[in-house]
Design a protein that fits this description.
The chain is of the alpha+beta class. It has 18 helices and 21 strands. The protein has a nine-stranded antiparallel beta sheet, with helices on both faces.
């Protein structure tokens, strides 16, 4: 089960986060001291060197990570300096990737268009970032737990307080099942689990809600607004937020001349690249339904690097464009923050603004480095693309724009590292659905033999190097910043990670999903052993009292039901480790639903066995050992019930 959970965790991190590789930056909101802007020499060999670097980086990793196709564009000083396609857009048809023609699906990079649209309407005085979004959606039933308003500024910072859910609804594979934006937001509203403006937790729903605000205020559908006010001004003729959905979906679908140029998506399954169908994101389109080319994305990057303009096309007024790149939220000083939808990071010593994106098959990244006038877009059409794009922008910047290494700062040697030791769980997770069983982004911190802190997260371990400020560290390999945060009592409560769209909450053993899963595995073994003893074990003297006999029967029945439930749950979930699309297209599978129903019966019988525990222990026909075994089994049954309840295992998904 641990291996299965690890695979699912990695999958959900890949497909949901859609964030750029982050790192700590200067914690002040002031502008950095300007440096002389380096540029490409205009000699031809410089362009050739860039092409050689990109070719070598990508082609070597395509084969290693089983990627069918890649598209890339690089802009510098308001000019397109590179646009390249690699590999296949359709292996069976022999169609290559062409940067100017092949459309890729960049997923959450779409969010940058949504926030650009919001800033356009703010500029026009039609929206205010600090007004309750309900004021713009008077007939939309936005249910919240806390009375505080939810504002567009909070949605930009991913701090509306929503939990994050995706399984079974974020993507669709059936064109006739694609919901309208409003219907999707009504049907799949997440629970609000914390007060708005408190801690960040990445929210696809929140961005889509902002897209609905844009549609309502403008009087246009989201797709029409994007075409008229985002794509057309920049000449992005090969881009669209429309998809080839069925006739029941309101609005015109993707045009055939664009559909035929969309790249296929691939998964590496059983030693081969397997194509998948079109992944529909239209129900939550402002958060991820864009289809685009590398050259069109170059136009978008140039506009944002050139104060909202591209030639005669105007996306934003200069003041608005500059404001959009200003940090408006950060969890803690000297940590990356949010800049009106852009995710802040540090790349090779420079402040970067960007966003990543992932769908079932496509993995993408976009990074702007305003100080350099540099923008890079890369997208892959295979689920191995995460490993390919990792480090691409960093290596490119280090090669062509090396920055001085920061000088080492003095560190207080008296800091006790053991106060930071513990397990930390991401705020970006499901709290009220059965997804809580699977989507765990966890970090563990321990002290090694040399007395240094080590962070374990997402399958790797890295040493933490202390920084001058109390609780501030940098990762030894990447230099990314982390900060341990304390509560009002001074106890360490959270870990601020390089990705500003979440924090990690410190959890004890009872709230740790890993310990809970380990307990369920142990309980399953106990229940299986109980069944074996009951069916094939030695003969035992029956209980003398009827209540005790019923207690014995109920414990065996409950054990059997839990074994059946766990077995069906595994049968339903294991196929997902081979086919990632089942997370969205086929969840929950019938065996998993059956497991939940049986778990309800198991829970009821477990309660019954606990109620009958006292009469059973009073039966003088049982030996002391048998009484202890029965009491232990009843306690394990009860704890299993509590653990499954904590994972929302009894909450059926619609």
């Amino acid at each position: 089960m641990g291996r299965m959970r690890g695979a699912l965790t990695g999958l959900l991190v890949l497909l949901w986060v859609g964030v750029a590789v982050g790192a700590g930056i200067d914690g002040q909101d002031r502008e950095r001291e300007p440096r002389e802007r380096p540029g490409f020499e205009q000699q031809a060999f410089e362009r050739q060197d860039l092409e050689a670097f990109v070719d070598g980086f990508i082609t070597a990793r395509m084969e290693a990570h089983h990627v069918a196709g890649v598209t890339v564009s690089v802009v510098k000083d308001d000019a397109l300096v590179l646009a390249r396609g690699f590999g296949s857009a359709d292996i069976e048809a022999g169609r290559p990737v062409v940067a100017e023609r092949t459309l890729f699906r960049p997923g959450s990079i779409s969010k940058l268009f949504t926030w650009t649209a919001v800033m356009q309407l703010v500029e026009q005085g039609r929206l205010d970032l600090d007004t309750d979004v309900r004021d713009y959606l008077p007939d939309f039933p936005l249910e919240t737990r806390y009375p505080s308003p939810i504002t567009l500024r909070q949605l930009m910072a991913h701090t509306p307080g929503f939990e994050d859910t995706a399984m079974g609804h974020l993507f669709e594979d059936d064109p006739d099942a694609v919901l309208s934006l409003r219907d999707y937001l009504r049907r799949h509203a997440p629970a609000q689990v914390r007060a708005p403006g408190s801690w960040p937790a990445y929210s696809n729903y929140g961005v889509a809600l902002a897209g609905l605000v844009v549609a309502e205020v403008s009087g246009l559908s989201w797709e029409a607004y994007a075409e008229r006010h985002l794509l057309a001004p920049l000449g992005m003729r090969d881009s669209t937020f429309r998809e080839p959905w069925g006739p029941q979906r309101e609005g015109r679908p993707m045009s055939p001349h664009l559909r035929e140029r969309v790249s296929a998506g691939y998964q590496w399954v059983d030693g081969a690249l397997r194509p998948g169908g079109f992944t529909f994101v239209g129900g939550i389109g402002p958060a991820g339904s864009l289809s685009t080319t590398a050259t069109d994305m170059a136009r978008f990057m140039r506009a944002h690097l050139n104060e909202g303009r591209l030639g005669d096309g105007v996306l934003l007024a200069p003041d608005t464009a500059r404001e959009m790149q200003r940090t408006h939220y950060r969890v803690a000083p000297r940590q990356p923050g949010m800049a009106h939808g852009f995710i802040e990071s540090e790349i090779a010593g420079y402040r970067a603004l960007g966003h990543g994106g992932g769908t079932v098959h496509f993995v993408s990244d976009l990074q702007l480095i305003p100080e350099l006038g540099l923008g890079v877009f890369i997208s892959t059409n295979s689920n191995g693309g995460q490993a390919l794009i990792r480090g691409f922008v960093e290596e490119l910047v280090r090669r062509y724009f090396p920055a001085p290494s920061p000088s080492a700062a003095a560190v207080d040697p008296s800091t006790d590292p053991t106060r930071y030791v513990g397990d930390y769980l991401s705020t970006r997770r499901a709290y009220t659905t059965v997804e809580a069983l699977m989507n765990h982004d966890m970090a563990s911190v321990h002290v090694d033999r040399e007395g240094e802190l080590v962070l374990s997260r997402r399958g790797r371990q890295v040493r933490l190097v202390p920084a001058p400020d109390e609780g501030h560290f940098r990762q030894a390999d990447s230099g990314e910043a982390l900060r341990f945060l304390v509560d009002d009592s001074g106890a360490v409560s959270h870990l601020a990670v390089p990705e500003p769209i979440m924090v990690m909450e410190r959890v004890g053993p009872l709230a740790n999903p890993r310990w809970r899963l380990a307990f369920l595995g142990l309980a399953g073994a106990v229940f299986a052993g109980t069944l074996l003893v009951a069916l094939f074990g030695w003969r035992r003297a029956p209980a003398r009292r009827p209540m005790a006999r019923w207690a014995a029967r109920l414990t065996v029945l409950a054990a059997g039901l839990w074994v059946a439930s766990m077995g069906l749950a595994l049968a339903g979930v294991l196929p997902i480790t081979r086919d990632v699309s089942l997370v969205f297209f086929g969840f929950p599978p019938p065996p998993f639903v059956a497991a939940q129903v049986i778990a309800m019966l198991a829970g009821a019988t477990s309660l019954g066995s606990l109620v009958l525990l006292v009469p059973a222990l009073a039966d003088d026909g049982w030996s002391r050992g048998r009484r202890l075994r029965h009491a232990g089994l009843a306690i394990v049954l009860a704890l299993t019930l509590v653990t499954v309840w904590q994972f929302n295992g009894f909450v059926l998904m619609g």
